[in-house]
């Protein structure tokens, strides 16, 4: 009977997934994809508000993709490395307060393995940003009609934002509708503001 209880308890413990273990790469990947999608889609909407030719839109979008991916990677690397340094310093202070035992040494090694990896976070951010950014670029590249192109960019960006929001919610164990809706509305706001302000500047005589 005791053996059965112990086995059941072990099985339940194994089935309980710690979603915080996904936090490092999930945060970088989801934020990177959302940023890439929103940034490049907003750039396309802004340029498209004053230019009907597809070439300026694609050029601006591609420049935004490259610059954004590099920025995300560098920013994530610096941020995570700073976090890692803080946690390492804290572990060192805690170790100095404890007696030097084998158990404590093993605990320190386990804690080091759980520290965030700056390189992994930077790579995840850059790749995710690129994946998100390329979607509106592809949507705009093969459509000649200006109005249709703009509508397709918005549609593709909206669908992708909703998908990213839902996937992030499912992987993170958070409410799907709330998370997906927040991401989608945020993207609409960013695209709308960029379109409106760029259009306003264009109407007041600034030529691009």
Automatic annotation (TrEMBL):
It is a multi-pass membrane protein. It is found in: Vacuole membrane. One of its GO terms (molecular function) is manganese ion transmembrane transporter activity. Keywords: Ion transport, Iron, Iron transport, Membrane, Transmembrane, Transmembrane helix, Transport, Vacuole. GO terms for biological process: intracellular manganese ion homeostasis. The chain crosses the membrane at residues 59-82, 121-143, 150-171, 183-202. The keyword Disulfide bond does not apply. Coiled coil: none annotated. InterPro entries: Ccc1_fam. GO terms for cellular component: vacuolar membrane. It catalyses: Fe(2+)(in) = Fe(2+)(out). Its main location: membrane. Vacuolar Fe(2+) uptake transporter. Belongs to the CCC1 family. This is Vacuolar iron transporter.
């Amino acid at each position: 009977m005791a053996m059965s209880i112990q086995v059941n308890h072990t099985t339940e413990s194994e089935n309980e997934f710690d979603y915080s273990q996904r936090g490092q790469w999930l945060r970088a990947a989801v934020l990177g994809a959302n940023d890439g999608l929103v940034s490049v889609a907003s750039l396309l909407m802004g340029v498209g508000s004053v230019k009907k030719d597809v070439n300026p839109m694609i050029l601006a979008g591609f420049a935004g993709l490259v610059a954004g991916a590099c920025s995300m990677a560098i920013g994530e690397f610096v941020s995570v490395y700073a976090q890692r340094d803080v946690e390492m310093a804290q572990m060192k202070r805690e170790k100095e307060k404890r007696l030097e035992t084998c158990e404590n040494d093993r605990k320190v090694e386990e804690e080091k393995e759980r520290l965030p990896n700056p390189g992994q976070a930077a790579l995840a951010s850059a790749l995710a940003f690129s994946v998100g950014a390329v979607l509106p670029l592809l949507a705009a590249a093969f459509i000649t009609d200006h109005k249709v192109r703009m509508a397709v960019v918005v549609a593709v960006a909206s669908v992708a934002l909703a998908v990213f929001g839902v996937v992030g919610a499912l992987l993170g164990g958070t409410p799907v509708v709330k998370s997906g809706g927040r991401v989608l509305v945020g993207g609409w706001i960013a695209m709308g503001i960029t379109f409106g302000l760029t259009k306003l500047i264009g109407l007041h005589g600034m030529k691009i």
